[in-house]
């Protein structure tokens, strides 16, 4: 699935990933391929994505995430 992470200042990441773990306002949650469409708010915390078994992480400062048609769009207020 495609992951795009962007802030008001810049595009942080764009690429194909196997899974994404996000810091939701109500706790962490994970997105896998073929996830149902959804929109959620994000808290400040660690966003982790995995590509071929290798994990990468970015700390986001809140924002929103939209999931639709195997595309995960993260609109973060900022990244640390």
Protein model, in words:
- The chain is an all-beta fold.
- Helix content is 0%, strand content 72%.
- Strands 2-1-7-6-5-3-4 form a seven-stranded mixed sheet, with no helix packed on it.
- The radius of gyration is 11 Å and the shape is globular.
Q: CATH first level: which class? A: Mainly Beta
Q: Please, what is the CATH homologous superfamily?
A: F0F1 ATP synthase delta/epsilon subunit, N-terminal
In total, how many domains does the architecture comprise? 1
CATH architect. name: Sandwich
Main beta sheet: strand number and arrangement? 7 strands, mixed
SSE layout:
Layout: E1 2-6, E2 11-16, E3 19-24, E4 27-32, E5 38-51, E6 54-68, E7 71-76
Parallel strand pairs: 1-7
Antiparallel strand pairs: 1-2, 3-4, 3-5, 5-6, 6-7
Which short descriptors sum up this protein?
single chain, 80 residues, mainly beta, ATP Synthase, domain 1, 7-stranded mixed beta sheet, globular, ATP_synth_F1_dsu/esu_N, ATP synthesis
């Amino acid at each position: 699935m495609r992951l795009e992470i962007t802030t008001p200042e810049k595009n942080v990441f764009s690429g194909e990933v196997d899974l994404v773990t996000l810091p939701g306002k109500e706790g962490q949650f994970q997105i896998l391929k073929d996830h149902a469409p959804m929109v959620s708010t994000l808290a400040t915390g660690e966003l982790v994505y995995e590509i071929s078994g290798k994990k990468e992480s970015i700390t986001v400062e809140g924002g929103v995430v939209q999931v639709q048609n195997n595309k995960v769009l993260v609109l973060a207020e900022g990244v640390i």
